[in-house]
Design a protein that fits this description.
alpha+beta, 2 domains, seven-stranded antiparallel beta sheet, five-stranded antiparallel beta sheet, 7 helices, about 20% helix, about 30% strand, Phosphodiester glycosidase family protein, glycosidase, hydrolase
């Protein structure tokens, strides 16, 4: 009986503290924590204990990334530095609330999309390490989103369209999504388009996720706390063709995570002319030379996913 009372008091204390923070005088802190929670698998329901659906929508709308109608200019060319063509560079990334890894792949032709062999079925996806190993690759990151009901998805059913080797392997020709992928000239193409348009753009490998961060050197506008601070996976490309693969750790004492603005700043700092957000959270993982080199969120490791950008 006494133990039950202590538990009840503890829960009431936690609830009261959360109420003070989430609905207290600091709108900025409330927005940051709420938008952060709404991007997690498990904490969405907690946020809904304190806010109505209408309040949640208002908070998310004032802490967001503006959509863009722009699509990467596929006509511009880049010249690869032949002396660096075989180079892959791993850089430690640090900021006020985050730590992570940036992989720079100087030859964009080495980037390919690995997909679940049972893509679209209810079967499980694979870990990024498995995609890398199965394709004799040197590295990789998680790519597009997937169906994730109640945070229990198994990576078997991808979100939106998926293109591999120039073929639409998931999604419909008329499905309109935020598309991220490479064309036959190994240029990163980002923008909102249908599956049909993606094929007309000559995309060889592509996935669906959002938001787009940078199009033709122009960053999108971020309002408020822009998605909160969370684990992130981002892909970008410089004007010399080098591909930027970024994974930010999050929800840890050493790294809370990065906001959308943080990701845009990092991509801009390293010269990205185009960049986009990939699936993040518990899915965020970077593999290099046979092992995971970032600190994934879960004690159980990273999640199974339907797609991965790999480095051959």
């Amino acid at each position: 009986m006494i133990a039950a009372v202590f538990i009840l008091v503890g829960l009431m204390t936690v609830y009261g503290a959360a109420m003070i923070v989430l609905k207290g005088p600091s709108v900025t802190v409330s927005n940051l924590l709420t938008s952060t929670m709404m991007e997690t698998r498990t904490l969405k329901s907690v946020a809904r204990l304190f806010f109505s659906e209408e309040e949640m929508e208002t908070i998310m709308n004032r802490n967001s990334v503006s959509d863009t109608d722009e699509i990467t200019d596929s006509e511009t060319d880049f010249v690869i530095d032949e002396s660096k063509k075989d180079k892959i560079e791993i850089i430690d990334i640090k900021g006020p609330t985050y730590e992570g890894k940036l992989m720079i792949v100087y030859d964009p032709s080495r980037i390919h999309l690995a997909v679940n062999s049972d893509l679209g079925n209810a079967n499980e996806g694979y870990f990024v390490e498995e995609y890398v190993k199965a394709n004799d690759a040197i590295g990789g990151i998680n790519a597009g989103g997937f169906d994730d009901p109640n945070g229990q998805g198994t990576g078997g059913i991808p979100y939106g369209i998926v293109i591999q080797d120039g073929e639409l392997v998931s999604g419909g020709l008329d499905d309109y999504n935020s598309v991220i992928g490479f064309n036959e000239q190994n240029k990163l193409i980002v923008g909102n388009m249908t599956g049909r348009q993606a094929l007309e753009y000559g995309l060889r490998d592509a996935v669906t996720f959002k938001p787009i961060f940078i199009v033709n050197y122009v960053p999108v506008e971020v309002t408020g706390t822009g998605g909160g601070v969370n684990p992130r996976t981002v892909i970008g490309q410089r004007e010399d063709g080098a591909v930027l693969l970024l994974v930010i750790d999050g929800r840890q004492t050493t790294s809370l995570g990065a906001s959308y603005s943080d990701c845009i700043d990092i991509m801009t700092q390293y010269g990205a002319m185009n960049a986009a957000n990939l699936d993040g959270g518990s899915s965020s993982v970077m593999v290099y030379d046979g092992k995971i080199i970032n600190n994934v969120v879960s004690m159980n490791g990273d999640r199974k996913v339907p797609t991965a950008f790999i480095v051959k």
